[in-house]
Structures are given as C-alpha cells and as structure tokens.
Backbone:
DNA sequence: TGAAATGTTGGGGCG
DNA sequence: ACGCCCCAACATTTC
C-alpha cells in the first residue's frame, strides 16, 4: 500500500485555498486527513459549548466531502504529537502537512509535533490562516504594532496577502483505514436539553455553508456595508466570523473576492475598504496575541492590574441571561444565547456594560462569550474584551462609556432589534422602548409591561454607574 | 468604533 | 429701533 501524505487539520476545514492540503495532494501520494480533538491546555482556551456544536457539524460536512475522493478523515484524541507520530509510523507517512496557527498553545503544540516527528515524517507548516505573518510586520522601531491604524497601513503597503488557489486539489484517496474514533462518541452536541435549535436555524457549518453565506453577503450586504454595519436591526454584516474561525473560508480567498467585487463594480470602494478594514481587526488581534501571549490573562496596560473590579455573581448572572433592564444589552445577550452570535455593535455595548456599568472583570465576559459564541476565537475575543475594558492595545479610553439608551436610539432607531429579542417590550412605543423605566405608567400599562414582573427594572442607574466607573478609573491614575 | 458638560452663536420675542 | 434675554443649535472640552 502506498504511504499517505497526512493532512493534519487545524481549523482549516476547507478544500479550496488551502495551502497545506494542496501541498499534500501535490506529493502525488494518497491523502489521509487527521483531526486531533483539542485537550488539556488547548481545550481550556478553545471555544465552549456553541463552538463544539459547530465543530461537530463542520467535521461531519468535511468528512462527507472528502468521502467523494475516498480521503478518510481520522478523528483522534490525545496529545497531537503522540497521535501524529503513531499514525505516521503505522502508515509509513513521509510528511505531515498542516496550517500554521498562532495562538500560544498552538505554537507550543506545533513545536512539540515538529520535534516528535523530526526526520521520519517532517512537519510542513503553511500560511493562510492569516493574511500576513505576525513576525514579519514591524514598525519603524522594529517593534510589533500596538496601534491599529499604523498596523493597517503597513498591511496595505505590504501588498496582496498572497496566492489564492481557486481550484480544488487533485486528491487521491487512501485505502488504508487506521482506526478512527466516532464523531458521535465525542459528545460535542448538546443533549438534555438540546439547546441548539436556534443554532440550527441560523447556521450551516462547513465550507458549502460558508460559500453560500459569502454569496448572500455579496448579493445583499457588501455594497451597503459601510452604511449598515453598525445597525443590528439590519442584516448589514457578513456573519462570516464562525466560518473564518473554523477555516471554512480562506481569509486570502475572501480578501481576493472582495477586491474582485470592487473591480467588477458590485460594491463601492468605500464599502470594500470598510469591510477589508474589519478583516484587518481580525488580523490585528491575532498579531497582538502572537506578540503578547499573556494577553489571555494579563492586561496589556499593566496599570490595570490594580483596577478595583467588583465581584457580583448576581449581576453577572443577570447580564448573562439578558436581564439587566437595559433593552439593547438584553437583546444582545439573548441573541447570543439563542443564535450563538451577536452583532458587533451590540457586543461593544454589552461588553462595555459589564465592564463599566457593573465593574465586573472583563475575563468574566470573555469566558461567557467564549462559551456561547459560535465564532469564539481566542485572539479576537481576548483582544476585543481588553479593547473595551481600556486595558488593551489601541484601546478605547476608559472614560468612553456607552450609554445603552443612546446607542439603542442611534443604532436600532425603529426598535426592530429590541422587539425581536425582548418581545415583552414589543408593544412599547419607540419613544420609550430603549428606556422603559422612564415611560409614564399609563404607557407601560397600555403596552402590558409591569417593570419587575414582565421585564426587569434597570440593574444600575446609568448616571450613577457612569460616575462610579469614572471614579474607579481615577484610582489608576494615582 | 462616546457622552456629558461647558462654551459660543444667532435668531426671535419683548420691553 | 434697539438692547436684552432666552434658548436652541452647534462647537469645544472634559471625563
């Protein structure tokens, strides 16, 4: 039997624009795909329950696709170095091909794999998860960027992110069948209760679903992106984040597709620039975590070590279940719980509320998002939360405190978003929808709302919470 | 990728 | 006619 080339899957669950897979196929050898379930350190920082739901379906979709070429997808657990070394030995594999990853745990993992495989079946790593190699981008002082705008200028100046392989790889199947675990046995899906109904309604994990999502965005969203992206009541964003996290769509492919759309007149330059810039934030976050691996647990601005965070389990629980009494925040938290996703603008407002209005540590929020988001991504999540908290790179100044009422009036002007996710307020007129506690009693009664019974009274009063947050921040300056 | 407080301006009402 | 006051609208600064 011909020895296979191993394609070690590392959240690059796609066949197109996949350098590692193409390289494996180009050897001419049969291809054997291997996925190793994260355990230990990796599992601690991997996504949580929503992410596992996605992983299950994405692996199933990929396995189905690969079956057309008789390429087996092996599922294994254990330290990746041990698993890959075993399979390489058993099959006589010459080379292991994989996508490079940049999280601290993933870099340790690939070093361990490389060391273990050594000369017998060397590990070949390929780019493509990011547009640029973090080690290659530095400012004039030869330091990694800490501010987004100069970072992004440097990216744009560096030119096209790289080659895109449009065609499918020429795959040869592998007839050997080293033992694989069964996906079902990994228990990645929720049971008792099955809370994944909302996820199933909203998402189609896998490369096909990713491509369809892109096509829909290209047809309906991209051209107005710069105008609508902050409006949670409109479907103005791409919703590609989970597909990007699992590598079901390649970032370089996506970049090229946006540029092509712009060239073909399918979207304005302003829209394309705006969307590419958001891809830039994803890139920026990954680069930050690469250069500052302690970002996951330590504030980048060290003075925040002394920040007087509160501990308040009841407030945290109210935030988590969307019962803060602030309609926009609650709508966002409920959208997250139901669909595994939250609109970016609302993420900022909800995160700001936890950190500033409630003075709870950003790590509580980060952990919750990591558990509930289908797009949970270590770098994006951690960098985003530190940005909101004011302790991160190029962070929002701490004194920028969102007013959830004003944000709601500005970005959900007709109240469609709040009414969808907080239906108990649906009959309130627009004037009071974002601040039901201010509504006259007869208006509340007419809308069938009794605060404290049908919808919570506000957990904190905005002006007082704002003053409290500013006072807490002031303690850092001394 | 804010909001609130404070400052400035200009038009209209009115003595 | 004129100046004064009021205050909305806008600008600036402060947090």
Residues:
């Amino acid at each position: 039997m011909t020895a296979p080339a191993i394609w070690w899957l590392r959240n690059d669950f796609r066949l197109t624009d996949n350098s590692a897979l193409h390289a494996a196929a180009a050897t001419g050898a049969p291809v054997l795909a291997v996925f190793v379930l994260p355990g230990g350190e990796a599992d601690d920082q991997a996504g949580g329950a929503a992410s596992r739901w996605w992983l299950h379906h994405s692996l199933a979709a990929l396995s189905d696709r690969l079956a057309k070429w008789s390429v087996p997808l092996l599922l294994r657990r254990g330290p990746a170095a041990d698993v890959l070394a075993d399979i390489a030995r058993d099959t006589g594999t010459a080379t292991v091909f994989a996508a490079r990853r940049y999280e601290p745990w993933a870099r340790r993992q690939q070093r361990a794999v490389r060391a273990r495989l050594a000369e017998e079946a060397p590990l070949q790593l390929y780019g493509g998860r990011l547009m640029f190699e973090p080690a290659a981008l530095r400012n004039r002082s030869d330091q990694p960027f800490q501010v987004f705008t100069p970072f992004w200028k440097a990216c744009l100046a560096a030119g096209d992110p790289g080659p895109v392989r449009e065609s499918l790889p020429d795959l040869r199947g592998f007839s050997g069948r080293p033992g694989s675990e069964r996906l079902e046995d990994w228990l990645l899906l929720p049971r008792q209760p099955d809370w994944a109904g909302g996820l199933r309604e909203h998402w189609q994990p896998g490369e096909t679903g990713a491509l369809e999502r892109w096509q829909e965005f290209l047809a309906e969203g991209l051209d107005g992106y710069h105008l609508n992206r902050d409006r949670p009541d409109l479907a103005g964003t791409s919703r590609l984040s989970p597909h990007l996290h699992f590598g079901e769509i390649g970032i370089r492919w996506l970049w090229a597709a946006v540029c092509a759309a712009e060239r073909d007149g399918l979207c304005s330059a302003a829209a394309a620039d705006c969307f590419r810039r958001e891809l830039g934030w994803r890139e920026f976050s990954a680069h930050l975590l690469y250069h500052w691996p302690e970002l996951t647990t330590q504030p980048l601005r060290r003075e925040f070590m002394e920040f007087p965070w509160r501990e308040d389990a009841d407030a945290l629980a109210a935030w988590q279940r969307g019962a803060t009494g602030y309609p926009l925040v609650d709508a966002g938290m409920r959208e997250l719980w139901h669909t595994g996703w939250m609109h970016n603008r609302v993420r900022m407002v909800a995160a700001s509320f936890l950190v500033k209005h409630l003075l709870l540590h950003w790590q509580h929020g980060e952990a919750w998002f990591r558990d509930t988001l289908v797009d949970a991504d270590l770098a994006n999540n951690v960098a985003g939360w530190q940005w909101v908290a004011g302790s991160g790179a190029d962070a929002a100044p701490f004194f920028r405190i969102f007013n959830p009422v004003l944000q709601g009036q500005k970005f959900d002007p007709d109240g469609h978003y709040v009414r969808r996710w907080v239906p108990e307020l649906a009959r309130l007129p627009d004037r009071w929808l974002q601040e039901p506690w201010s509504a006259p009693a007869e208006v509340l009664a007419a809308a069938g709302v009794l605060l404290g019974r049908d919808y919570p009274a506000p957990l904190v009063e905005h002006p007082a919470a704002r003053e409290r947050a500013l006072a807490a921040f002031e303690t850092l300056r001394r």
